[in-house]
Amino acid sequence: MNREAVIAEALGLLDEVGLDAVSTRRLAKRLSVEQPSLYWYFRTKKDLLAAMAEAAMTPHATAPLPTPDDDWRDWFLANTRSFRRTLLMRRDGARLHAGSTPTGDLGRIRRKMEFLVASGVPEREAHMAMLAASRFTVGSVLEEQADTDPGDTADLPADVPVIDHESAFEAGLALILNGLVHRTGV
């Protein structure tokens, strides 16, 4: 058993039972070890959850970084969509990620910010746009993952339009990007 194996099993447990049911007791049982042996790798459950959140973000965290030839608007959309896809890969992925600190991803975040600024987006606007897109994405995925019956619209009034999660996400993302373009003029 090693740290990576513990994280992998913890993510498997997350997918199986959901975030509320993940416990070190259940994880130890799944690994066929005594619960105290997990403390060798993670001092607290919070430490375990942070490691799980970081590992769950690997598909997004290993996506190619922007190049100077990229159009910043196309990249911004692709980056945010990649983040959403990654959150959706895990049961309760948005809840696991919410509140986590991207300590292993800080260099990549800096490179993304440098790209936006080099593309003409003022630094403060770039920070605010990345933050807004991130929080919007997490919130969208939280709602999507909490929707246990997306086809059930019986309680909605007849004049309320039904919008699927994908379309709602794309519309909100377009609003963020269009607002940034409008504010920056680039």
Could you walk me through the main structural features you see in this protein, from its secondary elements to its overall organization?
The protein is mainly α and 186 residues long. The N and C termini lie far apart (51 Å).
Outline of this structure?
With 186 residues, the chain is mainly α.
Determine the strand fraction and express it as a percent band. Answer: under 5%
Oligomer: single chain
Envelope shape: flat
- Uncertain runs with pLDDT below 50, 5 residues or more? none
| Radius of gyration (Å) | 19 Å
Q: How many β-strand runs?
A: 0
Order of helices and strands: HHHHHHHHH
Structural class of the secondary elements? mainly alpha
- How far do the termini sit from each other? 51 Å
Under the CATH scheme, which class?
Answer: Mainly Alpha
- Tally of helical runs: 9
Topology-level CATH name:
Tetracycline Repressor, domain 2
Instruction: Give a short account of the largest sheet.
Output: none
GO biological process, one term: negative regulation of DNA-templated transcription
Domain HTH tetR-type: 1-60
Protein name: Transcriptional regulator, TetR family
InterPro entries: DNA-bd_HTH_TetR-type_CS (IPR023772), Homeodomain-like_sf (IPR009057), HTH-type_TetR-like_transc_reg (IPR050109), HTH_TetR (IPR001647), Repressor_TetR_C (IPR004111), Tet_transcr_reg_TetR (IPR003012), Tet_transcr_reg_TetR-rel_C_sf (IPR036271)
